[in-house]
Write a structure and sequence with these properties.
- With 361 residues, the chain is of the alpha/beta class.
- It is 35% helix and 13% strand.
- Strands 7-6-5-4-3-2-1-8-9 form a nine-stranded mixed β-sheet.
- Helix 2 (70-79) links the parallel strand 2 and strand 3.
- It is globular.
- The N and C termini lie far apart (41 Å).
């Protein structure tokens, strides 16, 4: 099997965040500020990613704006020749900060929203006034001439507001809207009983997206990340384990996907001690589920083996207790019934109270 080059780097600069979103995919055990890589280390990582073949970097967290050295890191990515996308809550994205980041080489801003209704969105974010701040930040992004994407994480509390969310993305001047149904990892898995929509709600949402795509073609691009639990075949998680994306956590651990640290039995190398190239090419954790030789039946020999690459390893562990099994969302999986059972359990009960994301659990 020839080893592909990563096309992207997901740089998780910090786990610090002013919001407490209960669907956050960050791990429950968050890295504290004292454990974060410094800007010098990130500068080296950016160049090593570019040397490996990566074309873009997603500057993520937590909230990247909590780092005072963010402009230095953006500049390092720009110097390395990477297209830079800031994934942000927009809390702290003042006009002055945005001008500084643009001068450093920022290309794109992705602002997350928690819904269309300000009061309910702020309640989910666990931050009063968040929606107003996001609206103002989006206006500044457009005025600066930067590309703007709105990311709307869809779940039980806001899925009926999808038409209003689409209108909001247009109103704010976004060129792209990402309708991202919750994927159940990290804090989202801990809050699954409060977040899971019904199948009817999902199907209605899918219809809303398709109609909006047709109506707004040429004006607004709409990406639709469907919930794995309502699929019949799994998605290629991160384009396949160790195939398209390399993730670097705030403390320097290099991961094949953002949730991989939740898997038992794997030890992840750190960019403090090894180059990104060494890790990508030779690290045992990256080799573990790369390609198809590790796959059990029914994945082994399946015509989709090199399409979905076995689906999500973290989901297999969460639902079936073993990361090496077929992703249970696949209808061919012997454990597919666990998905239906989870849906039935979570949608039948009243919405459980949120466990808001915060340092210390």
């Amino acid at each position: 099997m020839s080893l592909p080059s990563p096309i992207g780097l997901l740089a998780e600069l910090t786990h610090r965040c002013p919001l407490g979103c209960p669907y956050c995919s960050n791990p429950i055990d968050l890295v504290r500020a004292s454990g974060e890589l410094d800007a010098r280390a990130w500068t080296r990582v950016m160049q090593e990613a570019a040397d490996l073949g990566a074309m873009h970097v997603h500057l993520s967290g937590g909230e990247p704006l909590t780092r005072n050295d963010l402009a230095e890191i953006v500049n390092a990515a720009n110097v390395a020749g990477l297209y830079t996308n800031l994934i942000t809550s927009a809390i702290g994205l003042t006009p002055q900060r945005l001008t500084e980041l643009k001068a450093a080489g920022l290309d794109h801003v992705q602002i997350s929203i928690q819904g269309a209704d300000p009061a309910r969105a702020d309640a989910v974010a666990h931050f009063k006034g968040a929606m107003k701040t996001k609206r103002e930040a989006a206006r500044h992004v457009v005025e600066e001439g930067l590309a703007l994407t709105i990311n709307a994480v869809v779940h039980r509390d806001n899925i009926r507001d999808l038409p209003q969310i689409i209108d909001l993305a247009q109103e704010w001047g976004a060129g792209r809207l990402e309708v991202a149904h919750v994927q159940y990892h990290g804090w989202a898995l801990a809050n699954r009983a409060g977040l899971m929509p019904s199948r009817d709600e999902f199907q209605t949402a899918a219809q809303v997206v398709e109609e909006a795509r047709e109506r707004l073609s040429g004006d607004l691009v709409i990406d639709h990340v469907i919930p794995d639990y309502y699929g019949e075949r799994p998605k290629a998680c991160m384009g396949g384990w160790g195939r398209q994306v390399i993730v670097v956590a705030p403390d320097g651990r290099a991961l094949p996907c953002h949730a991989a640290a939740s898997l038992p039995g794997l030890t992840f190398a750190n960019v403090k001690n090894k180059s990104l190239s060494e890790i990508w090419k030779d690290d045992a954790a990256f080799q573990r589920y790369r390609g198809t030789s590790w796959m059990p039946k029914p994945c082994q020999g399946c015509e989709r083996a090199e399409v979905d690459w076995g689906g999500c390893r973290c989901q297999a562990f969460a639902l079936a207790g073993d990361a090496s099994l077929t992703d249970p969302v696949c209808a061919l999986s012997p454990n597919h019934a666990t998905v239906a059972a989870a849906i039935a359990k979570d949608t039948a009960a009243p919405r459980a109270p949120y466990r808001f994301r915060r340092i210390g659990g």
